[in-house]
Specification:
There is one protein chain. The protein has helices at residues 12-21, 35-40, 76-80, 83-88, 90-97, 102-107, 110-115, 122-129, 227-233, 241-254, 266-289; strands at residues 5-7, 26-29, 48-51, 61-63, 67-71, 133-138, 141-146, 151-153, 156-157, 165-172, 177-185, 196-205, 208-217. It has a 5-stranded antiparallel β-sheet with strand order 4-5-10-6-7, covered by helices on one side. A 3-stranded parallel β-sheet has the order 1-3-2, covered by helices on one side. A 3-stranded antiparallel β-sheet has the order 11-12-13. Helix content is 34%, strand content 25%. The protein is built from 11 helices and 13 strands. Helix 10 packs antiparallel against helix 11. A hairpin with a 3-residue loop joins strand 4 and strand 5. The mean pLDDT is 96. With 290 residues, it is of the alpha+beta class. Bound molecules: flavin-adenine dinucleotide (FAD). Flavin-adenine dinucleotide is lined by residues 27-35, 52, 72, 99-100, 104, 108-109, 111-113, 115-116, 121-122, 159, 161, 165-166, 193.
């Protein structure tokens, strides 16, 4: 089967009506960096591609008092290079800046990174730790869903991009004293998937951590939150190194990395996680202390 039509709608309504008209034979495409290789390998076989990058305001980045709103067509380059965003959401700007190469980052979108549903997708790991949600438009109306609830298994998203469209990603703006950080370990700095990646987001009141979110990849069938490790951090004082060490060890125990020719054996990757998770917690708490 080959692509018969490539359509570029200018509005969300037009996009939904095109998807509806082709009754499951059409699929959304943004940068195409995940989709095109799958088409070439015949893993998916739509006959129509509907390009979302021409939709009005889809590449907008808006910062409000309560949220960062990332248009669904926003590329990793737009986020990675934004100094204002880096002040409040360094985990996200760093994650986007670590993806692929400049050429990939220039066309690939954060939305695609979520819908592709890979457990180690860098921006998705950061978005999960930042408690981000997506806005979805479908023939049934509009709804929103937490990014971490969109996973149905490795490479399986709950978003049906032959029927519905993500219109924006919403990242809450921290209202209290907050720090977040992201890190990844990979054989090269560029053009290389991570052996492991991790992110931390800490919120503090009276020098105590009142909320701790951690996320890691690719160590499960989705970006993974180690809840025992998070529980150890909650209530700890900011510079409690014992709690940080314990959380890093627990996180590596909760993770379930596979042995892989590309990424190394499971034991090695667990050891790396201990170091990386400690590092991102320390980085996030250092930002908190500022
Ligand atoms: C050489 C190379 C290196 C890479 N390196 C990395 C890396 O280091 N880290 C990493 O995380 N990823 C990496 N990737 C994967 C990829 O670049 C990212 O996942 C990227 O963010 C995908 O975005 P895209 O816009 O290209 O998505 P596309 O390929 O266009 O789409 C991906 C999926 O999202 C759906 N979709 C797109 N937009 C919408 C929408 N608005 N609503 C609903 N569904 C939608 C599509 O239908 C498709 O199912 C790499 C890819 C390549 C080719």
């Amino acid at each position: 089967m080959s692509i018969e039509q490539y359509l570029i709608p200018e509005s969300i309504d037009e996009c939904l009506s095109l998807l509806n008209r082709f009754e499951g034979r059409a699929m959304l495409i943004a940068g195409g960096t995940d989709l095109v290789p799958k088409l070439a390998q015949k893993k998916i076989e739509p006959t129509v591609l509907v390009d979302v990058t021409g939709i009005e305001n889809f590449c907008d980045l808006i910062v409000t008092h309560t949220d960062l709103i990332v248009g669904a067509g926003t590329t990793h380059t737009q986020v990675a290079g934004n100094e204002t965003l880096a002040q409040t959401w360094p985990a996200l700007t760093r994650a986007c800046g670590s993806i692929g190469s400049p050429q990939i980052r220039n066309i690939a979108t954060l939305t695609g990174n979520i819908v592709t549903a890979m457990p180690g997708a860098d921006a998705a790991v950061a978005l999960v730790v930042l408690d981000a949600a997506v806005e979805i438009a479908s023939p049934d109306g509009k709804r929103s869903a937490a990014v971490e609830d969109l996973y149905a298994g490795v490479g399986q998203s709950k978003i049906d991009s032959g029927r519905e469209i993500i219109t924006a990603i919403k990242v809450p703006r921290p209202q209290k004293k907050h720090g977040n950080a992201y890190g990844r370990i990979s054989p090269r700095n560029s053009f290389c998937f991570p052996i492991v990646n991790a992110a931390a987001a800490l919120t503090c009141e009276n020098e105590k951590i009142i909320s701790a979110r951690l996320a890691m990849g690719p160590v499960a069938d989705r970006p993974f939150r180690p809840q025992k490790a998070e529980a150890v951090l909650k209530g700890a004082v900011l510079d409690d190194l014992k709690a940080i060490d314990e959380a890093a060890i627990l996180a590596s125990q909760e993770a379930n990395p596979r042995s892989s020719c590309l990424r190394g054996c499971a034991d090695y990757r667990r050891e790396l996680l201990k170091v990386l998770v400690k590092q991102v917690i320390m980085d996030a708490s250092e930002r908190l202390a500022r």
